[in-house]
DNA sequence: TTGAATGCAAAATTTTTGCATGGAA
DNA sequence: TTCCATGCAAAAATTTTGCATTCAA
């Protein structure tokens, strides 16, 4: 367990929302040394890519997509942070979690109808958060 | 309406499943001239990128993500092809559609609980298709 | 001490942009 | 004719790989 990895894990857990590799890189560098500016990072972007891939391979993190064209990473489900999905504000990017997606019913139905064995589902909900609804009026 | 665009639209509609830009490019070239091999395409990959972006901007196509790290494109919902989601085989890549995702309930609940105005949801289901379940035994 | 993780450089891949040409309407 | 779409070249952005060095255990 090295300092860069500790910083990246901390970045992920304190963010509380899925982060892109770029964001992991930025946040982790801030944690390592808040004084540093851009270009004087101690943590290389390559290391962030490698670590993110590693986490995903080992199923320690999940890859999430918000229709941005790249992955975000989030610490895997656990008893502390159980199965959940995201409600994303298209305007300001705010992310809220929600649980009880109620998809077990659907899963059962699909398995019956299609013969597939369902392993997982990916659900993200997009809209406008309360603040942005006011602002945009 | 040019030949390349006609071919790309036809590729999308005859595929019936969301295609990546690379796939749109390949399929459209096949349609334009089945004799051509790789490297002698008449349709440039750049054109496929531009057209895919155009379709998405104009809401004539939807961007779909299957956790592959890139977008797939699918002709937008219509009365002929109403709101649906995808059931994707992780083993062979087979894609089946399904309707009645039953998420209006969830949407209502989320709007009430979070104050968000929900605009859309992304749902994709992953698993193993019947054939692959047999093969992998 | 030793293997794994890192940084740096470079390469590979993917996507976008600029610009002159060509073709549809 | 006129403007938009295209191809080609090049650039930009993103992600991966190679390798020597460093560091945690």
Can you walk me through this structure?
The structure is a homodimer of 137-residue chains. Chain A folds into two domains: 1-78, Winged helix-like DNA-binding domain superfamily/Winged helix DNA-binding domain (Arc Repressor Mutant, subunit A, Orthogonal Bundle); 83-137, 2-Layer Sandwich (Dna Ligase, domain 1). Chain A has helices at 3-15, 21-32, 45-57, 104-114, 130-135; strands at 19-20, 61-64, 72-75, 85-89, 95-98, 117-128. Chain A has 137 residues and is an alpha+beta fold. In chain A, helix 1 packs across helix 2 (21-32) and helix 2 packs across helix 3 (45-57). Chain A is built from five helices and six strands; from the N terminus they run αβααββββαβα. The model of chain A has no long low-confidence stretch (mean pLDDT 94). Chains A and B meet through helix 4 and strand 6 of A and helix 4 and strand 6 of B. Strand 6 of chain A pairs antiparallel with strand 6 of chain B, so a sheet runs across the interface. The structure holds a DNA duplex (25 and 25 nucleotides).
Query: What's the β-strand tally of chain A?
Result: 6
How helix-rich are the residues of chain A, as a percent range? Answer: 40-55%
How would you write the strand order of the largest sheet of chain A?
A: 1-3-2
The ordered H/E elements of chain A are HEHHEEEEHEH
How much of the polypeptide of chain A forms β-strand, as a percent range?
15-25%
Q: Multimeric state of these chains?
A: homodimer
CATH class of the largest domain in chain A: Mainly Alpha
* First and last CA, distance of chain A: 50 Å
By DSSP (H or I, 4+ residues per run), the number of helices of chain A equals 5
């Amino acid at each position: 367990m090295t300092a860069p990895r500790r910083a990246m894990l901390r970045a992920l857990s304190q963010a509380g929302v899925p982060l892109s590799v770029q964001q992991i890189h930025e946040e982790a560098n801030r944690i390592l040394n808040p004084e540093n500016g851009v270009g004087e990072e101690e943590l290389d972007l390559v290391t962030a890519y490698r670590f993110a891939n590693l986490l995903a391979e080992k199923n320690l993190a999940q890859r999430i997509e918000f229709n941005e064209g790249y992955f975000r990473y989030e610490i895997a489900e656990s008893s502390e942070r159980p199965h959940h999905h995201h409600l994303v504000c298209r305007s300001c990017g705010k992310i809220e979690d929600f649980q009880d997606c109620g998809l077990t019913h659907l899963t059962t139905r699909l398995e019956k109808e299609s013969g597939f064995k369902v392993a997982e589902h990916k659900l993200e909900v997009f809209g406008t958060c309360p603040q942005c609804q006011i602002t945009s009026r």
